[in-house]
Amino acid sequence: MSTDNVALTHRWFEEVWNQGRVDAIDEMAAKDAVGHGQAEHGADIHGLEEFKPFVRSLRAAFPDIKITIDLSIAEGEHVAVHWHATMTHKGQFLDFAPTGKDVTITGTSIQRIVNGKIVEGWDNWDQLALLVQIGAVPTAKFLPRERQRRSA
User: Fold this and answer.
1) Mean pLDDT for the chain?
2) Per-residue pLDDT at 152
3) By C-alpha distance, which of 109, 114, 82 is closest to 1?
């Protein structure tokens, strides 16, 4: 079963995120699936009808998103993946207008799969890195004099 669950998880990232196939969500996830920490401000998403607009919104902001799974670990009903994503900020993201900037982030996702369907998922990804890369959050820069003070 773990092999099937890993295959489903890989298919999820390829078809839903990389290809933008929102129609494939119904094939792979239970109607009442819960996504933890996926919506704005880390709120949960309950059910596919809440999840589909989230996918559409994120893909509208980053239409060329490409997620590559770097590591998969499966145990029982759970599959954990560590991934990295590359994308270009081409559409509105939260309150931020498109910048055309390239973005690379990393994340970890865990899916719980029952009877061949995703029923629950947890996502942690580097939202700060994304915001810094699109220029929404300033980065700290140390001037040479400040560097000298810090090393003294």
Assistant:
1) 91
2) 58
3) 114
CATH number assigned to the domain comprising residue 96: 3.10.450.50
Residue 118, C-beta contacts closer than 8 angstroms, at least 6 positions apart: 8, 9, 12, 28, 29, 30, 33, 111, 112
Q: Which residue has the tokens 């910048």?
A: 99
Domain carrying residue 52:
2-151
Give, in order, the Cα–Cα distances in Å from 31 to each of 69, 87, 102, 118: 25, 29, 34, 9
Collect all residues with Cβ–Cβ distance below 8 Å to 121 and sequence separation of at least 6.
33, 34, 35, 36, 38, 109, 110, 111, 112
Identify whether the C-beta of residue 28 lies closer than 8 Å to the C-beta of residue 11: yes
Max CA separation in the chain (angstroms): 61
Q: Which helix (H) or strand (E) element contains residue 117?
A: strand 117-125
Residue pLDDT, tens place only, 3-20: 899 999 999 999 999 999
pLDDT digits (tens, 9 = 90+) for 66-101: 999 999 999 999 999 999 999 999 999 989 999 999
Half-sphere exposure of 148 (CA within 13 A, CB side): 3
Token readout for 78 is 């759970």
